[in-house]
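Most newcomers find our protein records easier to grasp once they have seen one. Sequence and backbone structure share a record, each on its own labelled line. To make this concrete, we reproduce a full record directly below:
***
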Amino acid sequence: MKPLSPTDQLFLWLEKRQQPMHVGGLQIFSFPEDAPDDYVAKLADQLRQYRRASPPFNQNLSYWLGQPGWVEDQHLDLEHHFRFEALATPGRIRELLSFVSAEHSHLMDRERPLWEVHLIEGLQGRQFALYTKIHHSLVDGVSAMRMATRILSKDSQETGMPPIWALPEREQSGASNGDLSLWSSVAHLLGSSGRQLGTLPTVAKELLKTINQARKDPAYSSIFHAPGSVLNQKITGSRRFAAQSWCLKRIKAVCQAYGTTVNDVITAMCASALRTYLINQDALPNKPLIAMIPVSLRHNDSSTGNKVGVILANLHTDLADASERLKHIHSGMQEAKQRYHQMSAEEIVNYTALTLAPAAFHLLTGMAPKWQTFNVVISNVPGPDTPRYWNGAKLEGMYPASITMDRLALNMTVTSYNNQVEFGLIGCRRTLPSLQRMLDYLEGGLAELEAAAGL
């Protein structure tokens, strides 16, 4: 039995009926040219031939002396994990998103391996979809994206490709370089690694510098005191999933006009959407919202080591001018990145853990409402930058679906694919009514920046 790490155990412990702890992804494909009308049904028959799963899809929870661990499942019931389904008519994107919203709300059976794959036919325009969900104790967001990408090919003629649960096993090349989440950083800080002690002087120095700056600058101090918001109430188990693509060229044009990064513009779009949504709900706080944003600090394409920092970003939702909001966001992000560039990977992890510890305590217990460190999560997970295919079908879009929690009712996750930026928003259906309208507000935020720049 392979024991679970403290972080992975935390994802199991956090799970409740209203708080499923799985991540997911929606992929939309177009039929291959000259494919018959029953192409998806034949594809389903082909996938059913893969009756053996590879790690982590063959892992099942087991307990020994009260401690959870992974054991290999000897009796995989493929009919439970792989489901071939049809959309309700008329098969629009609206029906597809409703389907994913409902499926993402459901807890998975802990007596079985914690994953599901749904092959969905009946989408208009000779398209079909694949919705996959897997428990966060098995994979982090970056690992899930890598697996979803591994099933794809650059060759439109390649066939006989396996499903995600039957991918050939790969050797581990080192620590994950993408999951420096709130929970992983805190768990890392509490770990037994001797390297932690060596980081304390630098971490303490940077933390003291941050605190002193917060005392002098009211705008900066809001990072440690995020305002109360409808985004931070207790949630129900019902989810709303909203997804849409934007052309990367539009976003890059705004970057060039303002001298910012793609991440800055995406963050500004999210800030504008949140501001408009909350104004329409008559619920915009007077103080600016704060976002927790994981950002890559890597200078090369190496695949090992942890080179990700978490930034607590002021979204400046108190500003009405979109261009001013973007400039302030860019300035704050640059300042945070500069702080991290002076620190080692271990120091970054520990600094992040210390600054997020109050938020972790509040999210876990709800006992410290004055320690609302951030209001929303905005994350960006890179995807393929060229067209991809699966058994001859062209991938048209891929949209991430993440986790919401009590006191964190909205998660805004973004990925990139083939000159597109793909937004996947997941939120509590009751806490945040009409969440799908935020897609219009994201477009409005981008259009406002384009207009101000004369594009």
About this structure: Residues 182-383+402-452 form a domain with the Chloramphenicol Acetyltransferase fold (CATH 3.30.559.30). The radius of gyration is 22 Å. The chain has 13 helices and 15 strands. Confidence is low (pLDDT under 50) at residues 173-180, 188-200, 219-223, 298-307.
